[in-house]
Amino acid sequence: MTAxxxxxxxxxxxxxxxxxxxxxxxxxxxxxxxxxxGHAQPWRDELATWSAAARPVSDLVRLAGTIDAATGPYYLxxxxxxxxxxxSPTALRxxxxxxxxxxxxxxxxxxxxxxxxxxxxxxxxLLAVLPSTSRYGQEARPYAxxxxxxVAATLLLVGALSRPTWRRWTGYGLVVAALxxxxxxxxxxxxxxxxxxxxxxxxxxxxxxxxxxxxxAGTEAGGDGPSRxxxxxxGRAAAADADRPANASRVDAREPRGPSGRxxxxxxxxxxxxxRSRRWARPRLFRRWLVALLPAVLxxxxxxxxAGSQRSRQLDWVxxxxxxxxxxxxxxxxxxxxxxxxxxxxxxxxAGRLGRRALLPGAAVxxxxxxxxxxxxxxxxxxxxxxxxxxxFACLLAGAALAGVRLVPALAVVALAGALGLPDQAALxxxxxxxxxxxxxxxxxxxxxxxHERPGDAIVYSPRDSWLFLDLGMAYHLGSRQPRDALVxxxxxxxxxxxxxxxxxxxxxxxxxxxxxxxxxxxxTTDPLxxxxxxxxTTLRDNFTVQQLWPRPGLTIALLTR
Length: 562
Known about the structure:
Layout: H1 9-16, H2 19-34, H3 44-53, H4 57-64, H5 72-85, H6 89-115, H7 117-129, H8 131-137, H9 143-162, H10 166-182, H11 189-203, H12 230-243, H13 265-270, H14 274-292, H15 294-309, H16 311-314, H17 323-327, H18 329-334, H19 337-354, H20 359-376, H21 391-402, H22 407-420, H23 422-428, H24 442-452, E1 458-462, H25 470-478, E2 484-485, E3 488-490, H26 492-495, E4 501-502, H27 506-509, E5 515-521, H28 534-543, E6 545-552, E7 555-561
Parallel strand pairs: 1-2, 1-5
Antiparallel strand pairs: 3-4, 5-7, 6-7
C-alpha cells in the first residue's frame, strides 16, 4: 500500500494537493480563451445561434420542428443565459469559454486516473494551448460543451467501473444523456465506452486498462511528489494479469490466503467467498451499463428522429467523406496543421507507453472518427469540428508520452505546441469564418448603413436564403436602427425558420420607397445590381440607380436611389 492510500498524514497531504493537477490547466485555458474573446465578430453559425436563442421558448420549440432540432437543446440553454448576460459577442461566448476550461480540468483528472498525475497535468496544459480550444471556446456553438460532457462521461465511467454502485451509474447515465442532447454525433463515444465495459465484464478491469494507475494522490511512498515511473511499472503488472486466462488461478492474487498462509477453498470460505462474488459481479457490469443508458435513450431518441428528418436541409452544404478527409483531420480538429501533426505524434508515443491503459483514451479518439467517416461515405455527415470532443483524449495520450521525461522538458514541449499555434491563435481572433482568408464583415457593413441612413430608408438582401445570413448580420449589429426590411412578408420567427420569406411582387413592396440599401454577398467594385437575380433584381434595375458603393470583405453595400 502506498502512503497516498493510507489514512495517515502523507495520504492526506497528497489528497489536498490533488488540485495541483487540474487547477493549472483550467486556469490556463480560461486565461487563453478569454484573451480577445469578443474581438472577432459573430460569424454565420453564431448569428444562427443568436437568432434562435433570442426567441421566446415557444418560438424556439417551433423552430426545432422546422430546422436545427439537433442544436435545439443548446439554443434553449443559451436562451436562459442571454436573459441574464445579454447578447454581446463576449456574453454569447462566455459559456463556451467556461466549458473548455472545465474540459481541461477534467482531462487532467482523467489523465491522473489512467496514467498518473504528471500525465494528467501535462494533458490538461496541452489542451489549454491548442488553437482549437480557443476557437471553440470563443464560439457560441455547442462544441465546447460537448467536449466537456464527453470527458465528464468518461471520467464517471471509470469511477463506476472501479466502484460499480447505482449512484455512480446514474450520474454517468445522466451525463451521457446531456452529451447526446448537446451534439448527437458525440454519442459515437459510446462505442469506446462499450468496448471498455465489455472487456472489464469479460476479463476484468486489467484487460480494459483500468487497473495499475498511479495512486490517487500522485506521490511515492515517501510523499515526495509525482511519480514518473510508478504508472509504467504498475501498468506492466496489470498487463501481465490481463494476459492470464480468465479462469486461471494465481496463488497470490486470485486465491485468498488463510491465517496460516495456505490457499484454497478453506481460505476462500474464511474470506466469505469474496473472490467468487467479484467474479460473479463482472457479468453484471455490462447490464448495469446498458441500464444506465436508458435516460439517454429516452431523451435522445425523439431528437434523433426529428433531426434525421431535417438532415437534407440542415446539411445540404456537406459533401460525402473522402479518404483525404482523414489526412486533414488532425489539422482540422486542432485548427493548425503543424500543431495537429505534433499532437498525433505525441499521442502515438503515449499510446505505446501506456500499453493497455491506452485502450480507453485511444478508443475514444479512433472509434468516433472511424464511425463518422464510415457513415460520412454514405450520408453527408463528415465535418471536422463535429469531432472536437475527441481532442481531450488525444491530449491525454500525448500527456502520457510527455510524462516519460522530466517535467521541465515536458513543459517545454507544451510551450512549443503553444508557440507553433500562435499564428492560428491570432487569426481566429480576427475572424471565425472558414477559410479565414474569406471573412464576412457584417459589422463593417452595419457601420456604413448606420452612418448614412435616413428616415424612410429600406433595406434589401441578395441572396436572402443563403447560409451567409446577411439579414441576421445586419439585425444583430444594427438592432432597432436597421432600415425597414421592405420585401419581408413573414420574418424568421413567424416562419419558425432561420430565413424570412419575401413578397412575390417586389415592385409593389418597394412602392413609395426612394432610398434602398442593397446588401449583396461578395466584394463588388462595379454595379452590384447585376448580381441580383429574378424579379427582385429586375425591379431594382428598372427603378433604382446606384448612388454610392461600399465594398467590404465578403459583402458589398450599395445605396440605391430612384
